[in-house]
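FW: tagging you since you asked about this chain on Friday. Here's the raw sequence from the shared folder, copied in full. Didn't touch anything.
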Amino acid sequence: MNDNMPKNEEEFKKKLTPEQYDVLRQKGTEAPFSGKLIHPDKDGFYKCAACGNPLFKAEAKFDSGTGWPSFDEALPGAVKNIDDISHGMKRTETVCAVCNSHLGHVFEDGPTKTGKRYCMNSVCFEDFNDK
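HL: got it, structure written out here
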């Protein structure tokens, strides 16, 4: 376990911005086309802003046109997918496998060989780095 990972909700509130806390810990959603990581223009790894867990390789990212960063596959064991029937819809929520923070949803309509579209919120990723 990451020693720098918050251990309770108060520590998450202190570590995260209000928008990050709303999305990651309260299952919110950032407005479409508002995130800084929509376009696939980086190399390296996308990591959870709440705990630092590596989630996606940059090579898995594609521009879905939806207004949120999209990936066709997660790193092995990095995320968990959970049935979500909130808001009158049946979807699959994606959370960080380490800290259980909400990242977004995964859909079976991706354009690549995996058929997956992990539709994630930009605020869920820590400042981008290539390590």
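FW: DSSP finds two helices and eight strands in the chain.
HL: agreed, and Strands lie at 45-47, 54-57, 61-62, 70-71, 79-84, 91-96, 102-107, 117-120.
FW: great, closing this out.
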